[in-house]
Amino acid sequence: MKQAPSPLFSAIRWVALAATLSFGVAHADDYADVAQLVRNGKLPEAMAKADQYLAAKPRDPQMRFLKGVIQRDSGKNTEAIATFTRLTEDYPELPEPYNNLAVLYAGQSQFDKARTALEMAIRTNPSYTTAHENLGDVYAKLASQAYGKALQLDANNAAVPPKLALIRELFNPATSKGQRPASTLSTPAPAAPPTVAAPAKPAPEPVASKPATPAMPAANATPAQTATAAAAPATQPKAEPASGADVRKDVETAVRNWAKAWAARDMKGYLSAYGRDFDTPGGVKRSAWEEERRQRITGKSKISVTVSNLNITVNGSKATAKFRQDYKANELAVSSRKVLELTKTGDRWLIVRESVGN
């Protein structure tokens, strides 16, 4: 019999599968078959099929991730922790195994370990909203423990009981109106076409609207036509200056040179693509971030970074580049949506912020 999860274990979100992970579609049917067996509650059959697959491809990240899900659903939490821990060691670029480790640790009331795992997930992907939300829940539980200890030491402290009651209410499904149901600890979904994104929430997060990009003059417009457009009444939308295409081309060149330096493991070229005001993940020191990137990039024997579906908007000295990034390194292949925010510094466009999954 499985042990019932604690309120916090039910509250923080378990990433059931890698519809978030993507390592190619060649074996999508194998992933989907195992996921379907898990959904149907046929955990022994799912484990047998996963083990059979891994006997031929022992380093496959997605099937190993699935195996950890099966172990957790089978009540074998210690084995699941070992599986996800090895995944974080072999594929530190992936935030989802860190998140699931945190959920497992929280289920064992090891909240310090859960906090550390979630901080690693966020450091790997600062845009990983599930990890941010889970970290808030873990902090709340740690606060509950601290308030409880304070009350033991000083039972007359009138300020503590209301705080403690508030946190306990937050994690009491019977009283908390905003409590996420335990059903968020779902079973795997079938493998999806290649894409890496933050795990789906009940509703997608709104994306901040951006002003529409002014229309460009036609590519074959004559000087007279351009002058006529410029003289249009103020109530008409202003045409983008003729140099707008050149500006976007400069931004595109900066983005592609960044990807090229990354793929070539050219650390000088790669790091120089980031501005002095770059918003480092988690607010770590620039030197620490650079050292981490240097170790991760130069530690790979081969890297491929492909930029596609590039969409660039420019607003004065600021630009935003949105694109699909296909990253391959050794046996790892990840496809994701990427956003780079750049500013014009001198005659160069430099990255000041980057995020994944937007």
UniProtKB/TrEMBL annotation:
It comes from the Bacteria. InterPro entries: Cds6_C, NTF2-like_dom_sf, TPR-like_helical_dom_sf, TPR_rpt. Keywords: Signal, TPR repeat. Residues 1-28 form the signal peptide. Gene3D superfamilies: 3.10.450.50, Tetratricopeptide repeat domain. SUPFAM superfamilies: NTF2-like, TPR-like. Residues 175-248 are annotated as: Disordered. This is Tetratricopeptide repeat protein. It comes from Rhodoferax potami.
